[in-house]
Design goal:
Elements (H helix, E strand, L loop, with lengths): L1 H9 L10 H8 L11 H16 L2 E5 L11 H10 L3 E8 L5 E3 L20 H5 L18 H11 L2 E6 L5 H11 L5 E4 L5 H4 L9 E4 L9 H9 L4 E4 L3 H6 L29 H9 L11 H24 L4 H12 L12 H12 L5 H10 L22 H4 L2 H5 L5 H11 L3 H7 L4 H11 L3 H8 L4 H13 L4 H10 L11
Parallel strand pairs: 1-2, 1-7, 2-4, 4-5, 6-7
Antiparallel strand pairs: 2-3
Helix pairs in contact: 1-12, 4-6, 11-12, 12-14, 13-14, 18-20, 20-22, 21-22, 21-23, 22-23
Length: 501
């Protein structure tokens, strides 16, 4: 137990007490440095451009244009506007020291090499957390502040869809919109956590015709045509090119440099890694894995132990500890992941252990991934949340949703077969074993098998989300012969979506 507590102490984000967000944000706002230099004529031109956007079909990208940059980054938002779309849906959270930032997830670990939540870390701490898959902008890929995002949209006269992820931020956002003179930019706003915004008389909301990203209808001409016929003002999607073509707009070029190239990236935090023996001991010290904590204090303590084990698994990956002993204890953590009533902790140690095994190319990693995907464990009954009307197996979603992004790094026949077996499931069969992941399986299959025949196979799948994912991936790889040939054979309409330089 002592080793577990010791490792827990060095992990980022072990603070459980939430800050008094509204008060902290209010104290930080006066220190924000807002852009200056907009003349009255500049402002008039900006508002005229915003009005022009709002007079036509509003094309809004969900978390930015994700085929061009990492979600919720300045580069993804800029790509939206450079392509010719009108604005972005952004997710707003707050750091522990009151800095408003754009980040979607409740937990950091899916996207960052970090654990915990945004509001457990200060802005300085958050900036040094590395992205797991930063994409084409590499070390410049980072979480932006809301101020930076507003500045970017003011520069481009871009529209905004606000999704405020936490309570207590709305008054601060109202203040920023006033100070930036950007109320007319806000075309959409989720109701949750937004009372002060929704009731403001300056807010004039639009209404969506529909969304095209959940089933990848954004690259399906029939789906685009049907959506555009509906009443409403806007369309939300993640790749705007298909709708731009349908509306007769020109697809613009996308910048290859970061938004702020002069801003030096922070040096990532490199924790002192404990000896491998201590990491293995922490993972092995898990006799409590199936003792479900009941009281608040017990749940907090159990959560600390689970996060300590997750951290130990992550450190084993960082050290490349590919020994039989390490593999054995990691596999045991996957098969006997910790039970917890709170989804943030349930199975967290097993999820990070599974990612470590896959990334270290453990001999049985794909077999263990298959076991995880198809598992419906009766041991879950004490931690199933009755308020969600989902199958019992969904309680293990943290492990299941990690599988396909991870096995993209593990090419081979076994991985290809796993993806194909999942893609062969019916909707009902997939839903019985966990949240459906057909798009994720298609992405993984094409990542480990980037071939024309694989892409064409996916473009003939029964589900539009699989067909659309294959088309988007081939569009991203258009210069490569295998991808271009696949598009010519199975999706020739997509040629109109690819900008010819």
């Amino acid at each position: 137990m002592r080793s577990s507590r010791w490792i827990a102490g060095i992990l980022i984000g072990l603070l459980f007490a939430r800050a008094h967000i509204a008060a902290v944000v209010a104290s930080v706002l006066p220190e924000l440095s807002l852009s200056s230099g907009e003349t009255p004529d500049d402002a008039r031109l900006r508002h005229a451009r915003v009005a022009e956007r709002r007079s036509g079909v509003e094309i809004i990208c969900h978390r930015g244009a994700l085929e061009f940059a990492h979600e919720n980054t300045l580069e993804a938002y800029r790509a939206t506007l450079e392509l010719g779309a009108d604005g972005n849906e952004i997710d707003i959270r707050c750091t522990r020291d009151g800095v408003l930032v754009c980040f979607h997830d409740d937990m950091l670990d899916r996207l960052l090499e970090a654990y915990g939540t945004v509001n457990e870390l200060t802005w300085d701490e958050l900036q040094v957390c590395k992205f797991r898959q930063p994409g084409r902008f590499g070390k410049h890929c980072r979480i932006p502040t809301l101020v930076e995002v507003l500045e970017l949209h003011r520069k481009f006269a871009g529209l905004l869809h606000l999704d405020i992820k936490e309570p207590g931020l709305d008054e601060a956002i109202v203040d920023l919109l006033d100070r930036f003179d950007m109320w007319d930019h806000v075309a959409y706003c989720n109701d949750a956590n937004a009372a002060a915004i929704i009731k403001n008389s300056k807010l004039k909301l639009s209404r969506y015709k529909g969304g095209l990203y959940l089933d990848r209808g954004e690259v399906d001409p029939a789906a685009i045509t049907e959506t555009l016929k509906r009443p409403g003002n806007g369309v939300i999607l993640e790749d705007p090119r298909g709708v731009l073509v349908a509306l007769g707009r020109t697809i613009g070029g996308v910048s290859s440099q970061p938004v702020n190239p002069e801003r030096r990236p922070r040096i990532p935090f490199v924790p002192k890694i404990p000896p491998i023996e201590k990491l293995i001991a922490t993972l092995r010290d898990a006799d409590d894995w199936n003792r479900v904590a009941q009281s608040v204090d017990e749940q907090k303590h159990s959560g600390e132990l689970i996060r300590a084990r997750a951290g130990a698994a992550g450190f084993l990956l960082a050290t490349g500890a590919a020994s039989d002993e390490a593999f054995a204890v990691l596999e045991d953590r996957v098969r006997r992941r910790s039970l917890h009533k709170h989804w943030m902790f349930h199975g967290f140690d097993g999820a990070i252990a599974l990612r470590t095994l896959i990334h270290l190319h453990a001999p049985n990693a794909v077999e263990l991934a298959r076991f995880t995907l198809w598992r419906d464990d009766p041991d879950l009954e004490p931690v199933v949340n009755p308020m969600w009307n989902n199958p019992r197996s969904w309680t293990d979603h943290r492990l299941k949703m990690l599988v396909f992004p991870a096995i993209e790094k593990l090419p081979g026949p076994a991985t290809e077969q796993l993806c194909r077996d999942y893609l062969a499931l019916s909707n009902e069969a997939a839903r019985a074993i966990g949240p459906p992941q057909f798009e994720e399986a298609a992405r993984a299959l094409l990542a480990v098998s980037p071939r024309t025949d694989t892409a064409v196979e996916l473009m003939h799948h029964r589900l539009p989300v699989v067909r659309g994912r294959a088309i988007l991936d081939c569009m991203s790889h258009d210069p490569e012969p295998w991808a271009r040939t696949a598009l010519e054979q199975a999706a020739p309409h997509a040629a109109a979506y690819i900008r010819q330089e």
